[in-house]
Amino acid sequence: MKTLTGLVLSGACITALAAPLTVQDGDIVFQTSRSAQSVAVQRATGSKYSHMGMVFMRGGKPYVLEAAGKVGYTPLATWTARGVGGHIVVKRLRDADRVLTPAALKKLAQQGQALVGRPYDLTFEWSDERIYCSELVWKVYQRALGVTIGEQQRIKDFKLDDPAVQQKMKERYGDKVPMNEPVVSPVAMFDSPQLVTVAQR
Fold this sequence. Notes:
Elements: H1 2-18, E1 28-31, H2 38-45, E2 51-58, E3 61-68, E4 70-75, H3 76-82, E5 89-93, H4 96-99, H5 102-114, H6 133-145, E6 153-154, H7 163-173, E7 182-183, H8 186-190, E8 195-200
Antiparallel strand pairs: 1-2, 1-5, 2-3, 3-4, 5-8, 6-7
């Protein structure tokens, strides 16, 4: 009986682990990308998380607004499967229950939609002409709600002496690296005290 109970409990745990993640509008998701630049981003920032986006419900299903190729929406399940090991971390504003009112969520959606279609920014510039993943989420929250998640840094603040980082910098910038360009990294947002982890697998 004890063994059977153990098996039942184990089965329940397995089922729970396999269950879909519970997310809501405005959640911020992080993963380790398989992209060509992922290793360089990880080493430059000192974090395994190299890609991120934010959740919006569309037709009752969760999608991730992300900058990848172009800014657009990807089904959450597809987005999760695309990352290394299918690992995902879901974070939420610490005071989401108070801040993310229906009116606030509408503003987030409008700001996100305004950037849909922008091409991905390979040189991490702070203009809106091209957008990279963490810049997208940072700007949507800041412009819609005045909420700043994660501190801006300069390119010169990152770990630039790693060979993988230097190779990517040479490809993207040649000999003219804009060391003082403002940048917000995935790890700066991941580590922000304004966010709390609500799910991961």
